[in-house]
Amino acid sequence: MSGSTVSARASPYGHREAPCGHWRCCGEQGRGQRLMLSPCPQSQRAAALGVLFALLMLLIIYSSGNGSEVFPYSRLRGRARRPPDLKKWGVKSGYLPVCGNKTLTAHCHQCVIVTSSSHLLGTRLGTAIDGAECTIRMNDAPTTGYEADVGNKTSFRVVAHSSLYRVLKRPQEFVNKTPDTIFIFWGPPAKMQKSLLKIIQRVSTSFPNMTAYVVSPGRMKQFDDLFRGETGKDREKSRSWLSTGWFTMVIAVELCDAVHVYGMVPPNYCGRRPPPRRLPYHYYEPKGPDECTTYIHNERSRKGNHHRFITEKRVFSSWAGLYNITFSHPTWP
């Protein structure tokens, strides 16, 4: 090849073929007909790369349009700065009274968080839990019938908007049984302030001894910002819902000098080999879903909104030394 001239090559059909990228006649029957020449190997590779590039760009655009990020991730994002000091968040400004002008000023030297896990069944921890200075429970986890294992004392009950009805429709279990309990309700600010707050207020008028607060809109944003700062993931873009455990752990750190958590499994628990035995997700729902199945499904799913339980536990593990948090039944490494 010299200059810009490309030589034609001999064809097995006895005529001269045009170079790649040109038109040619094909055989005796093809004389007078112009057909597209099949591309050379180099052209085939270029075309294939072009198609792959186009598909990749479409995939990126589709993923961006969905606003979803990949879960799970094997480790937490390395911090570019020191984590915020949860002790300095200021309890009073974060929790608004349902009735009156009271402020949340409670403080405990030693607290226990009683999870809803089936790991507590058969532990006979009730006496130790009731002996703690402050006891924190979640959502609609009952104590009646389970006192030997989970105790009965309830200083604080942290309740998600999705569990609000289940708690308030059983006042004899959750309101009257332990009248000193302080309720902290959390949920999307628009939903809480437009409808759910009115329901809580109506119940409060029937039980004047009930003390209840809702998480303020500003504090709700802080919880989201904290998740992003600790994990590097935007909660909404990654289609995540913060769990009641997330709110409860932060509130406990705010209110307590030391926190002991009963029944929460460590972040690597469900990945152990051989796999752990199957247990119901809640101790009070023996026919409910399996604990590890629930954790793994929520962690990995990209369709719909899900709790990232395992990711949250990784964060809790990183907080243990910072905020004097210990775990037992099972014990964390």
TrEMBL record:
<dbReference type="Pfam" id="PF00777">
    <property type="entry name" value="Glyco_transf_29"/>
</dbReference>
<keyword id="KW-0325">Glycoprotein</keyword>
<keyword id="KW-0735">Signal-anchor</keyword>
<keyword id="KW-1133">Transmembrane helix</keyword>
<dbReference type="InterPro" id="IPR001675">
    <property type="entry name" value="Glyco_trans_29"/>
</dbReference>
<dbReference type="GO" id="GO:0009311">
    <property type="term" value="P:oligosaccharide metabolic process"/>
</dbReference>
<keyword id="KW-0730">Sialic acid</keyword>
<keyword id="KW-1015">Disulfide bond</keyword>
<dbReference type="GO" id="GO:0009988">
    <property type="term" value="P:cell-cell recognition"/>
</dbReference>
<keyword id="KW-0443">Lipid metabolism</keyword>
<dbReference type="GO" id="GO:0001574">
    <property type="term" value="P:ganglioside biosynthetic process"/>
</dbReference>
<keyword id="KW-0812">Transmembrane</keyword>
<keyword id="KW-0328">Glycosyltransferase</keyword>
<comment type="similarity">
    <text>Belongs to the glycosyltransferase 29 family.</text>
</comment>
<dbReference type="GO" id="GO:0001665">
    <property type="term" value="F:alpha-N-acetylgalactosaminide alpha-2,6-sialyltransferase activity"/>
</dbReference>
<keyword id="KW-0808">Transferase</keyword>
<dbReference type="InterPro" id="IPR038578">
    <property type="entry name" value="GT29-like_sf"/>
</dbReference>
<keyword id="KW-0333">Golgi apparatus</keyword>
<dbReference type="GO" id="GO:0000139">
    <property type="term" value="C:Golgi membrane"/>
</dbReference>
<protein>
    <recommendedName>
        <fullName>Alpha-N-acetylgalactosaminide alpha-2,6-sialyltransferase 6</fullName>
    </recommendedName>
</protein>
<keyword id="KW-0472">Membrane</keyword>
